[in-house]
Amino acid sequence: MTDVTSRRLQGTGIGRGIAVGQVLRMPDPLPEPDDTPSALTPDAEKERARASLAATAAIIRHRGERAGGSAKDVLEAQAFMAEDPTLIDDVGERLDSGKTAERAVFEAFAAFRDLLVSMGGYMGERATDLDDVSQRVVAHLRGVAAPGVPDPDFAFVLVARDLAPADTALLDLEKVLALVTSDGGPTSHTAILAREKSIVAVVGVADALDLADGTEVIVDASTGTVTVSPTDDERAQALERAEELRSARSADTGPGRLADGTEVPLLANLGSADGAEDALAKGAEGVGLFRTEFLFLDSTSAPTVDEQKAQYVRLLQAFAGKKVVVRALDAGADKPLSFLNDAPEENPALGLRGLRALRANEPILRDQLRALAAADAETDADVWVMAPMVSTVEETRYFTALARECGLKTAGVMVEVPSSALLADRILADADFASIGTNDLTQYTLAADRLLGSVASFQDPWHPAVLKLVGEVGKAGQQLGKPVGICGEAAADPLLAVVLVGLGATTLSMSPAALADVRAELARFTLDDARRFADLALSANSAIEARAAVTAASIS
Ligand SMILES: C=C(OP(=O)(O)O)C(=O)O
Ligand SMILES: [Mg+2]
């Protein structure tokens, strides 16, 4: 039996899914252990350290056995770290000098970590694993929950402040029924990865961290609500809706087109070739945004040409005969790549990111373009390449010339900064195509950090100012006969997708999970309808008014 009344928390839903389950909170990272002398003898501390290192190795190994596949190898390697004799000796020496086990483990792992980082390459990339093991041993010593995504034996709703991209990428989708975060807006990378992996998610829920472990919740992305301690009726309805959604999704997978037959190819946003099969099964007609930086988020040194080529070949082979738009590495702000931009910046979203960071490291950009051209030469997909965060005509010329020099035929730019949208006619005179990144375009138009929960309400691509800029690019594309795609999350909002077509978008790219809903919505309206909706949205005063006006028109 459950309560007769439930409580609702409001956030921003990602997609339209719904899930029911019990909450598990992601523990916060542990603070650095104090360096105060131990009250125990070194031998007693050695025994504590030995027991926690052994227990941590056993827990990690057990997780690996349960996970199987490539995760098993990764976790086995982590278990070995907790058993490494050199490390254990180092811990022992620090204990002999009177430190606590917590501090000695922390220091010994940190010293080993620094050594690995200085070695660079593959070894350097293991530094994060070492940090994880260190935190787990210290947590065991303190008798508190280990940091990172919890890994219980049952399915749960993960509640966190926010997730690092690597945490989201490694989520076990069998276990994580839904994701609720207190921070992050609808276009944060947590949201994007949640969409990509079809995880039911509600982000920016202010009180999320007050939810206690074990509380039952309904997470409804279509309304952006988290219902705490649902009634029996609420639970039954939610489970029924979840079932309906599952069956609707497996229905139509044909090409995207409006009711009058106007073709609007529906493409996939992908972060690795692993998602290719699923995207094709969901009817993706190609790839509209391949986020190459997602392949190398954990790398401490730039990937080699061969390493990159192998990844690109995998993707291009999967999409033989289809269009694949590959974005050059987009580093900075929400996607730090230490090998491209390591400098601390006061305002990273306005700093050396996107094409700016690539240009400051031109050899890395050249390697990437060469790797892509080599992969293109060996495969049969129609490869397009584009630069992220382009803000001037001069940058457009720089990138398209370099891409062509490296052997790529079709080179374009992302329009994510208002300056590029306003000068779209000049940008498109040089670029073969434009792809509008509505996530960043919204962030920069409304001056609202896309990662900040407190300004998430500004981060709404329905805002008429954002749509006006999209319309500028659409007009320039039509005049010059150049394609204009949309690859931000706006394309995954079914009704907004219709508006974007009305504003001149020729293709829409989104996480594969959103394809079915967008395809169904496009089929309900003609191009004239779409243009009428676009006019309605443009003449509104706010995002809320624009959405309401178009919603009303779409059901009348
Ligand atoms: C597609 C976009 O790029 P990303 O979300 O990867 O910054 C965008 O900004 O809309
Ligand atoms: Mg962007």
UniProtKB/TrEMBL annotation:
Region (Disordered) location: 26-45, 243-262
Localization (cell): Cytoplasm
Role according to the record: General (non sugar-specific) component of the phosphoenolpyruvate-dependent sugar phosphotransferase system (sugar PTS). This major carbohydrate active-transport system catalyzes the phosphorylation of incoming sugar substrates concomitantly with their translocation across the cell membrane. Enzyme I transfers the phosphoryl group from phosphoenolpyruvate (PEP) to the phosphoryl carrier protein (HPr).
Domain PEP-utilising enzyme mobile: residue ranges: 157-224
Cofactor: Mg(2+)
Keywords: Cytoplasm, Kinase, Magnesium, Metal-binding, Phosphotransferase system, Sugar transport, Transferase, Transport
InterPro entries listed in its UniProt record: PEP-util_enz_mobile_dom, PEP-utilizing_PTS_enzyme, PEP_util_AS, PEP_util_C, Phosphohistidine_dom_sf, PTS_EI, PTS_EI-like, PTS_EIN
Pfam families the UniProt entry points to: PEP-utilisers_N (PF05524), PEP-utilizers (PF00391), PEP-utilizers_C (PF02896)
Organism: Herbiconiux daphne
Residues of the PEP-utilising enzyme C-terminal domain: 253-525
Family classification: Belongs to the PEP-utilizing enzyme family.
Protein name: Phosphoenolpyruvate-protein phosphotransferase
GO terms for MF: phosphoenolpyruvate-protein phosphotransferase activity
Keyword Membrane on entry: no
Domain Phosphotransferase system enzyme I N-terminal: 10-126
Reactions the enzyme catalyzes: L-histidyl-[protein] + phosphoenolpyruvate = N(pros)-phospho-L-histidyl-[protein] + pyruvate
EC number in record: 2.7.3.9
